[in-house]
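Input record (one chain):
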Amino acid sequence: MSVEHENFIKGPKQLIVIVLLAFTVPVAAIALLSQLMTSDKKLREDEDKAAIAARIKPVGELVIAGPKVLLTGDKVFASLCTTCHTPGLAGAPKFGDKEAWAKVIKNGPAEAFQMAINGIRGMPPRGGNPDLTDEEVEGAVAYMANAAGANWTAPPLKMPSAAPAQAAASTPAAPAAAAAAMAPVAIPPPVAASTPAAPAQASAAGADKGKSIYDTTCMVCHATGVAGAPKFGDKAAWAPRIATGIDALHNSALKGKNAMPPKGGNLSLADADVIAGVDYMVAHAK
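The corresponding structure, as predicted from the sequence alone:
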């Protein structure tokens, strides 16, 4: 028994339709795919330039530090003077204490400004921050005095200029440099045993730096032992602290401990300077 398969094409019209569809459908599919592939590119080309710039903006940017930022009196007080003048350490008149500031105010702003700039008794010059300008220091003094009843006017802030000093120093140096260039070069004889001197020179330099930091910052409290600070050279007072280890002492000086603020209240000091000051005091307490 045989089964005949029925042909689905019934006539010439159906054949023509099928042939047309066989060409039209693939062409339409190809066109749609082409449009889909190029639409994303067209959208990107149509984006606003500002949006493109924002999208490709780098994560980090290099920012060049500007010149010194001048501080008003209240800012200098908050960052430096408060260390001693808020609790009244080392005889410093407490902030807002009219009785303590009465004599200072009576003597006038000119004298008070000079004492703050040059230092007096336990207070180092410029409160221990040599980077402050005269006007910044005077502004801080006026701020504290006015809080105690004075009516002083802080001088206008102005940037320090080192240009004249540099020009004056460079002018006479030019003839000397020319003369030195024309002079015969003398070859020094070899120096024997120079290597052992290097550690001694480095040690001396470190001691000098430590003394400088002590004289301008640490002595405010450690010279008299105020607020529980171990007095300079007092072996008994320093012994338990030295026993904790030099690293612990460095960390306390850098971050602050008890009544002592970080870096002794002079935040402009580098970590290495603070460490040199601690080492200097420890060396004189052993």
